[in-house]
């Protein structure tokens, strides 16, 4: 019986040499970064410490929800063909742990 090293069993060589996997991980990282940046940016009040005369500087719940929804749809459309468009690191890690490859 052939003795295998720990790196053969765990699959470290497969992860290190698979350029497609790194491309998918980079796309997921960029997608998640954009979603958090754009979505959380939609919650910011731009009025500063000055009192608002008409209240236009404070985003409503509808505006925030639309911003998140449009951001998710746009990022999924742009990066979905590369990585599967999970846009959630927990989902990406979970699917990677079970060996699912949904990008194809």
From TrEMBL:
Record Pfam families: MIP
GO cellular component term, pick one: plasma membrane
Keyword terms, alphabetized: Cell membrane, Membrane, Transmembrane, Transmembrane helix, Transport
Chief site of localization: membrane
Transmembrane region(s): 25-48, 60-79
Locations listed in the record: Cell membrane
PROSITE patterns per record: MIP
Entry similarity comment: Belongs to the MIP/aquaporin (TC 1.A.8) family.
Protein name, entry field: Aquaporin AQPAe.a
Organism for this UniProt entry: Orchesella cincta
């Amino acid at each position: 019986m052939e003795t295998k090293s720990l790196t053969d069993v765990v699959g470290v060589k497969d992860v290190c040499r698979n350029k497609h996997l790194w491309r998918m991980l980079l796309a997921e990282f960029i997608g998640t970064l954009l979603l958090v940046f754009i979505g959380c940016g939609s919650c910011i009040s731009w009025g500063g410490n000055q009192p608002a005369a008409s209240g236009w500087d404070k985003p409503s719940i509808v505006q925030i929800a639309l911003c998140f929804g449009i951001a998710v749809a746009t990022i999924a459309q742009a990066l979905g063909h590369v990585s599967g468009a999970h846009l959630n690191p927990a989902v990406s890690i979970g699917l990677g742990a079970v060996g699912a490859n949904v990008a194809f």
